[in-house]
Amino acid sequence: MRTRTLTTGTEIPYLGFGTYLIEDGEAAAAVAEAVRAGYRHIDTAEVYRNESGVGAGIEEALRSEGLTRGDLFVTTKLWPGNREWGQEAKTTESTVTSLDESLERLGLDHVDLYLIHAPFGREDRLAQWRGLVELQRQGKARAIGVSNFGIGHIEELKAAGLPLPAANQIELHPWSQKPELVRYLDDNGITPIAYSSLVPLSTWRTAEGHDSAKSERMRADGEQAESPFKVMARKYGVGEAQVLLRWAVQKGYPVLPKSTNPYRVRQNADIFGFALDEEDMTAIGTMDRGDGVAWATGDPTKAA
């Protein structure tokens, strides 16, 4: 299976291309390369400041590969604003305007999935969710969801009598498996989408300015010559990244690997020609270390 069905009936590809930390000027070439390599889901966000480049890459890829808009699944995210960080919080009305502006930058008339990027401020996120519901009604988003929401945040939507999200994009990898949250999502028909799948790699976010909460112990473990993922990679004749991505797909999580290296882009796409055996899946299940580390400020699913 190459796709998972959202509650709206929309098919989301298991293989997605993430664009976080790709500069706007580099995004077009990266996205076009990803589509040529077989990616059919492109993920961006208002706060990444690269939607224009992503849109240009989509346009180029559709033309060069002979594809139609319907062949691609495009996700972007509302930056909700955070009063605690001195930012103005989006209202229902400005949420609607924000997607209109994202669509203009992307050069699209709709996205396949629109997400609230993070759960900042209880009343604010309820107002923003009402905006997403309206955008779906208008046909500007085929499906709507959230990102970095914990159980309590989604329960607030329920308590307000609002529709549930179709998806929740969260940090998921062997070191942050979030079993309780994933079980809750599955029980409520909400698709977990995994980001930062490659945290256990020694090469993950090593560039200057690419901050995270990854500990020195984690970095050291990833550099070990006989780390579990290196051993598994040799066993299956693949790369470590492919092992991590394959684990997520076998768990039922669409993934969003990011690279601007054409070789890595193609290698990360090659995750459907092998499967991790039951022994390795069971072993990885024992590696959970708790909260996510992609945000330097702490795991946002735990926010108040």
Strand proportion: 5-15%
How many beta-strand runs? 9
Q: Provide mean pLDDT, rounded.
A: 97
- Biggest sheet strand order reads 3-4-5-6-7-8-9
Q: How would you spell out the order of helices and strands?
A: EEEHEHEHEHEHEHEHHHHH
Task: State the shape.
Answer: globular
Oligomer: single chain
Sequence stretches where pLDDT stays below 50 over 5 or more residues: none
Blueprint (SSEs and pairs):
Blueprint lengths: L2 E3 L5 E3 L2 E3 L5 H13 L4 E3 L7 H15 L7 E6 L13 H15 L4 E6 L5 H17 L2 E7 L3 H9 L7 E5 L7 H9 L3 E5 L20 H8 L4 H9 L3 H12 L10 H8 L8 H7 L20
Parallel strand pairs: 3-4, 4-5, 5-6, 6-7, 7-8, 8-9
Antiparallel strand pairs: 1-2
Helix pairs in contact: 1-2, 2-3, 3-4, 8-9
What do you see in this structure?
By secondary structure, the protein is α/β, with parallel strands linked by helices. It has helices spanning 24-36, 51-65, 92-106, 122-138, 151-159, 179-187, 216-223, 228-236, 240-251, 262-269, 278-284, and strands at residues 3-5, 11-13, 16-18, 41-43, 73-78, 111-116, 141-147, 167-171, 191-195. It has a seven-stranded parallel sheet with strand order 3-4-5-6-7-8-9. The chain has a two-stranded antiparallel ribbon with strand order 1-2. The longest helix has 17 residues, at 122-138. It starts with a strand and ends in a 20-residue tail after the last helix.
List key phrases describing it.
single chain; alpha/beta; seven-stranded parallel beta sheet; two-stranded antiparallel sheet; globular
Provide a concise account of the structure shown.
The chain has helices spanning 24-36, 51-65, 92-106, 122-138, 151-159, 179-187, 216-223, 228-236, 240-251, 262-269, 278-284, and strands at 3-5, 11-13, 16-18, 41-43, 73-78, 111-116, 141-147, 167-171, 191-195. It is an alpha/beta fold.
